[in-house]
Amino acid sequence: MEARLPLNKGKVKGLPEGLDALIACADLQGRESAQGAGEDPRLLGEILADELEFLSKSGNIPSLDRTGIILAGDFYSRLDRRGGYGDVRGVWRAFSRSARWVAGVAGNHDLFSAMPSLPEMQAFLETEPVHFLDGDLLELGGLRIGGISGIVGNPRKPFRRTEASYLEALDRLLRAGLDLLVLHDGPDVAGTGLRGWPSIREKLESCGPLLAIRGHAFWETPLALLGNGTQVLNVDSRVLLLEG
């Protein structure tokens, strides 16, 4: 099937000095049209990175060297159908080429190697200017960002945790204090039909308000408010430009 990828714009408060915007996306499980493409059509994330660079240079969006990129997982797609799992290093490299920084998490369809290989993944993360998050917290120019990769599921598969392990990692991050939380899996929203995990929502509602960005489960309404004031931004199959 053919589909269009929307680029939506919004406003955000509290960006640190030197950062004019954030761009967030997830679940870009597609490839360029076979017409005019090579033998291995590029992943949609690679095409998006090129398009954002063009829009930035033409003045249609803020300069990418003053923009942070948030990747919330699932940037791989097979050639014959949506899904499967595979190497997304090219997508992360493409975004890091011109952005101020790139930070994000893996989805359950992502690998950072040709085949599952922890040494190859570690070598990539140590040599590329990207910030990979999986239970980690970092500070980028005054913005405290935490993230958890993967989904709740069978831990024998790549980027999956038990529900108890996921909540334990989330609790550690929340107690450390965050401005921005990046997840692939994530909370539901009570009484709305917006899909996710009630236990993750309850954990988020037990702390102070923050901004959480997630993917994995598409919501018709991209922005939701939890009971404690936390805002959840769902970027599954979306690109969102948040300007300060």
Overview of the structural elements:
This protein has 244 residues and is α/β, with parallel strands linked by helices. 22% of the residues lie in helices and 25% in strands. The protein has five helices and 16 strands. It has helices at residues 44-57, 89-96, 118-127, 163-176, 198-205, and strands at 7-11, 21-26, 67-71, 86-87, 101-104, 110-111, 131-132, 136-140, 143-148, 151-152, 160-161, 180-183, 211-214, 223-225, 231-234, 238-243. Helix 1 runs parallel beside helix 2 (89-96) and helix 4 (163-176) runs parallel beside helix 5 (198-205). The radius of gyration is 17 Å and the shape is globular. It starts with 6 loop residues before the first strand and ends with a strand.
Spell the H/E element sequence. EEHEEHEEHEEEEEHEHEEEE
**Oligomer designation:** single chain
Q: What proportion strand?
A: 25-35%
**How large, in whole angstroms, is the Cα Rg?**
17 Å
The CATH superfamily name is Metallo-dependent phosphatases
Main-sheet strand order equals 1-16-2-3-5-7
Beta-strand segment tally: 16
Classification by helices and strands: alpha/beta
Query: How widely separated are the two ends?
Result: 36 Å
- Mean of pLDDT: 93
Total number of helices: 5
User: Can you tell me the CATH topology?
Assistant: Purple Acid Phosphatase, chain A, domain 2
Under the CATH scheme, the architecture is: 4-Layer Sandwich
**What is the count of structural domains?**
1
Major β-sheet profile: 6 strands, mixed
Show unreliable segments: none
Q: Which terms summarize this structure?
A:
244 residues; alpha/beta; 6-stranded mixed β-sheet; 5 helices; 25% strand
